[in-house]
Amino acid sequence: MKKDYIVAIDQGTTSSRAILFNLKGKPIYSSQKEFTQYFPKSGWVEHNPEEIWSTTKKTLKDVINKAKRLRGNVLTIGITNQRETTVLWNKKTGKPVYKAIVWQDRRQAEFCKKLKKQNKETLIFNKTGLLIDSYFSGTKIKWILDNIPLARKLMNKKQLLFGTIDSFLIWRLTKGKVHATDATNASRTMIYNISSNKWDDAILRILKIKKHILPEVKDCADNYGSTHPSVTGKSIPITGVVGDQQSATIGQCCFEPGSLKSTYGTGAFILLNTGSKKIYSKNRLLTTIAYRIKGKTTYAMEGSIFIAGAGVQWLRDRMKFFKKAPETEKIVKSLKDNKDVYLVPAFTGLGAPYWNANARGVLSGLTRDTGPKEIVRAIIESVAYQTYDLFEAMKHDGLRPKIIKVDGGMVMNNWFSQFLSDVVNVKVLRPKVQETTALGAAFMAGLQIGVYKSLKDISKNWNLDKKFSPNIKNRKRKSLIKGWTIAIKRTLIN
Q1: What is the mean pLDDT of residues 190-206?
Q2: What average pLDDT score do residues 161-186 get?
Q3: Which CATH number belongs to the domain containing residue 120 in this structure?
Q4: What is the pLDDT at residue 366?
Q5: Are both 97 and 239 inside the same structural domain?
Q6: Cβ neighbours of residue 360 under 8 Å, at least 6 residues apart?
C-alpha cells in the first residue's frame, strides 16, 4: 500500500530546500542546497535567479525520488519563500533581466527618503500596512526599471513579468503557464492594498510600474497549476503558497487572535495574529496579511529583525570564530556573564521599530579582557534584545502577548531560548517539528486538496518539545536592557 506525502519547497535567503512530510506534518526527508550571496556594493545584496531555480529543482527532484524509494505518492506541492526578494523576467524567454534583489538590499534608501519628503508615507501605510523602506519589493522593481534599459523596454512592450521568488518558481515549474502569487507575498510588495485585496493603482503610478507585469493574487490554499513532467517526472499539483514568515505562523498553528510566533532564521520575524481586524501600529510595526483562505483575510502585526542567524554566519564565515553554528551554545555557556559587551548587528541597517537604513553595526563595552567568546555571546544576546524592542512596541500599541512560539535554527540553542525568555519576560514554547516554515506551506497545500478539513484539524498536529520560563530577577533584566538601550543609541548616531 502506497503512503501519501506532501512536498514543501522552502526557498530561503541562503539555501533552497525541499522537505517530504507525511500527512501528520512529520518531516520524513529533507534536501538542501546553499547558493551564492552577491554583495556588489555596500548595502547591496543579490542572488542569481538561475541558481535559485537550479538548487530548487535539484532538491525537489531529490525529495520526489526519495518518495518513490519509500513507495510513496506525492499528492501535492506547497511553496514558501523569502518574501520581498524581487525578480523581473522576460515573458517570452523566461530569462531574468537582472539578478534577484534580496529583501536585505538597501540600495533604494535615498529614493525612499524622497518619497517621505513628498509626504507619501501616510498614504502608503494606510493602503499597504507597510512603512516606506527599500526592504519592500516595490522600490526594488522601480530600481530595475530605472537602471536596466531592457526592463523598461520589455515592460512597454508587455513582455515583462515581476514576481517574488514564489511567482518565479511557479512560472518555471509550470513552464510558463501560471503567473501567480499569494496574498501574503503580495502584502509585502508595498504596492498591494491589504483592505481591497488588489494591486493599488495610486502607488503603481507613484512608482511608475505598469499593472500588467504583476502576478494574479490567489489565496494561500489555492490551485497554482501543476508542475511540468520534464521538471518533476510526472505532473504534480501546486496547491499552497505562503511567504516564509506567514508560513511559519501557519506551521506554528497561530490561528487565534493574540497568538504569536517568532522565527529565528537569517533574520528574525515576529507575527501576531490580529484576526479579521487590521491594527495599525503607532510604534512603527507593520500591518500585514497573515493568511487568506477561501477569500477570507486574517491579518497580523509584524516586527522585522534584519540580522539574527546572519550574525552567527558572519562570526563563522568572516571572523572565523568557530566552524559550525551549534558550537555557539558551548561558547556562550562558558561565560558567567558578558562583562557589559554589546553588539548591535546593524549590518544592513535596522528594521523595526527603528527603520534606519543608514545605521551600521556597533560593538561597545570593549576592554582588554574582551575576546571572541564575548563577541559571540554579544551577537546571540542581540537577537533577544531586538525581540524585546519589538515586544515593547507591541505593548505601546496595547498588545501584551504572554507566550512566544519559536522556531528557526537559533532556537535549538537552549541557552538562547532561555535568555530570550529572561529578557522578554514571557514563556517561550519550542515545537517538536522545527521545520515550521515548510510545514505551513505543506498544511496549506493539504488543506486545498482536502487532506485537512479545517485550521482546527491542522492544529492537532502541533506538539511541544520544550518550554522556557523567565528565570532572572527584574533588577538584572533592567540592567541588561539598559546596556542594550545605550548601545542602540550609539548605533543611531551614525
Answers
A1: 96
A2: 97
A3: 3.30.420.40
A4: 92
A5: yes
A6: 346, 347, 349, 491, 494
- Whether the ω angle into residue 353 lies within 30 degrees of 0, i.e. cis, is yes
Domain shared by 204 and 158, yes or no = yes
Which residue has 548595502 as its cell numbers? 43
Dig out the grid coordinates for 427 from the structure: 514563556
Same domain (yes/no): 387, 292: yes
Cβ contact 115:131 at 8 Å: no
Q: CA–CA separation, 100 vs 77, rounded Å?
A: 23
Residues 6 or more apart in contact with residue 491 via CB below 8 angstroms = 344, 346, 350, 359, 360, 361, 362
Q: How far is the C-alpha of 84 from the C-alpha of 136, rounded, in Å?
A: 5
Do 230 and 175 touch, CB atoms closer than 8 A? yes
Q: Which helix (H) or strand (E) holds 51?
A: helix 49-69
Q: What is the DSSP string of 416-459?
A: HHHHHHHHHTSEEEEES---HHHHHHHHHHHHHTTSS-SHHHHH
The pTM (predicted TM-score) of the whole model is: 0.90
Per DSSP, the residues of 224-251 read: --B--HHHHSS--BEEEEEEHHHHHHHH
Question: Has residue 122 got a pLDDT over 60?
Answer: yes
Which domain does 307 fall in, by range? Answer: 253-431+463-494
Q: Which residues contact 170 (CB under 8 A, 6 or more apart)?
A: 79, 163, 178, 179, 180, 181, 224, 225, 238, 241
Q: What ranges in 157-308 are assigned the alpha helix state H?
A: 165-173, 183-186, 201-207, 229-232, 244-251
Half-sphere exposure in the Cβ direction for 101 (13 Å, CA): 29
Question: What is the number of structural domains in the chain?
Answer: 2
Structure confidence at residue 344 (pLDDT): 93
